[in-house]
Amino acid sequence: MLEYLNLGYNQIHDGFPSWLLKLTELRAIILKSNKFYGPIETHRSQLNFSNLHIMDLSNNGFTGELPSKLLQSFHAMKVIVGQDQLEYMNTSQRLPLSLDKYEKVVDYEMKLMNKGTEREYSKVPYALKGIDLSNNKFEECISDFIGDLKSLVLLNLSNNILTCFIPPSLANLILAQLTFLSSFDVSHNQLFGPMSQGSRFNTFGASSFVMNEGLCGTPLPKKCTTVGDDIPLPTSPLEEENGDESLFDLDWKVVLISAGVGFLISVVLGNFFIDEKSKWFLYYLKIMAKRWKTSRRH
């Protein structure tokens, strides 16, 4: 049964090959540097990638939101494997030799981006688990559930059009504990908000987060300003496109429709003093309200 599929560096021009979902024993899928395009749409009944360790879809033209349902099926990435286990991905081949037959073990090989450099793995350890979706056109928010993939070692979401905050759950990933092998990159997107202080994000250099104009805080050189009544929050690219409107200059009708009347009233009446996190939450609601109004006009 097929465990390793490498179709990288070709000229394949097509949507995401949904037939791959039938290959339930796959441990590695490499589709990098092709011409795949469009959103990755899957039905929950099709999802069974429980054994997958490596998925590399980088350098294509995929669009839409990150494939959350697909990623949630990566059960092997939720299990932490001891790093002292030196087992490698391989296959056994029966080769004829004179009148006898013997089995030869063939190790799988692959190249993966690790800390901004393409690294060649002549042997791929089972403990290596990674997702590379870089250099596509994925948009919207980073799903919070990615933090459940606790055995991820490599995560590259750079060079997309991702917005919103970096989910605090990502700080729980084991990749932030492995300085000798870990790689985390969300640079060149449209993320905004303060970095989670006291988290393991500080173990990564600023290069993992650069070119997100709305991000601030360690390890970035851009400091988050103290939030007060007369001090503005860091500006995101979406805010710049819509002028110098006040943080609290919201279209409350739109917010009420989007967030729900009961929820918003409880927030307004229950929080006369708005702290820093609340302001960032309202900032997020403001952006969602603008998107909703824009979609209605179209």
UniProtKB/TrEMBL annotation:
Subcellular location: Cell membrane
Broad class of the protein's primary localization: membrane
Coiled coil: none
Tagged with keyword Repeat: yes
Transmembrane parts of this sequence: 254-274
GO terms under cellular component: plasma membrane
Alphabetized UniProt keyword annotations: Cell membrane, Glycoprotein, Leucine-rich repeat, Membrane, Receptor, Repeat, Transmembrane, Transmembrane helix
Organism superkingdom: Eukaryota
Topology term for the membrane: Single-pass type I membrane protein
Family listed: Belongs to the RLP family.
Protein name, as recorded: Uncharacterized protein
Source organism (scientific name): Eucalyptus globulus (Tasmanian blue gum)
Lineage: Eukaryota, Viridiplantae, Streptophyta, Embryophyta, Tracheophyta
